[in-house]
Amino acid sequence: MLAAASEDSHHSRLGNLPEQAEGEPVPRVLTILALVLEKLVARDDRLVVSLSQQEVEANRGVSWGKVGQRLNPFHGVRAPSISIGKYLERIYKYTNCSPSCFVVGFVYIDRILHRHPDSLLVSLNVHRLLVTSVMVASKMFDDVHYNNAFYARVGGVSNVELNKLELELLFLLDFGVAVSSRIFETYCLHLEKEMQLNGVAEKLERPLNTNGSRKRSKYPWKIDLD
């Protein structure tokens, strides 16, 4: 289990991170993906609270009995203090993965939720699901990618834990990690519609291509998700 860190010390470590390279804006996909995931997490967090209240009223105590257990390996002790948006930016900034990997990672998470509809995307599991899914997407679609140990440092988990989470993700997907250009385009259009609903009529970064043109930022300072 990850070492617990206070919110103040956590933010202090994040404050020591190098700034985003000048002239390299954050890809639009990160912004809209953070918005979509935050909405999903807020909805499912409310559902968990509602189910817990029902359990208490039934004198059974708080439990997750009505919620699927498939995503339990991705649960942290507490919700990380780093926001989804900042976490996505951190992954992009240090791993040099292409923007397309975040779309593909979203495809993986959506597939899992459809294959296991009783599972919920909540504040306790979303960060670990993100770093694992983006890492697997990078291995599938980027010409060059970093190893699990580096992703673990960026993501704020141990290498041993991330190795286990990668296997959990693959089994939850039944090793269905291929994403066709048609499926990729469908998810891009979905995210663009979300952008339009929020008053931004712009296209997402499209190509499922290489990541060789970007330079990685300095070696990341350590964070802890819990």
How do you describe this structure in short?
The chain has helices at residues 7-15, 28-57, 84-95, 100-115, 126-141, 148-155, 159-172, 181-197. With 226 residues, it is an all-alpha fold.
Number of strands: 0
- Biggest sheet details: none
Q: State Rg.
A: 18 Å
Structure classification: mainly alpha
The quaternary organization reads as: single chain
Q: Which percent range fits the helix content?
A: 40-55%
Which stretches are low in confidence, meaning pLDDT under 50 for 5 or more residues running? 1-22
What is the terminal-to-terminal distance?
A: 9 Å
The number of helices is 8
Name the overall outline.
Answer: globular
| Proportion of strand residues | under 5%
Order of helices and strands: HHHHHHHH
Overall average pLDDT: 82
Q: Which descriptors would you attach to this protein?
A:
226 residues; mainly alpha
Structure description:
- By secondary structure, this protein is mainly alpha-helical.
- Helix content is 54%, strand content 0%.
- The chain has 8 helices and no strands.
- The relative contact order is 0.20.
- The N terminus is likely disordered.
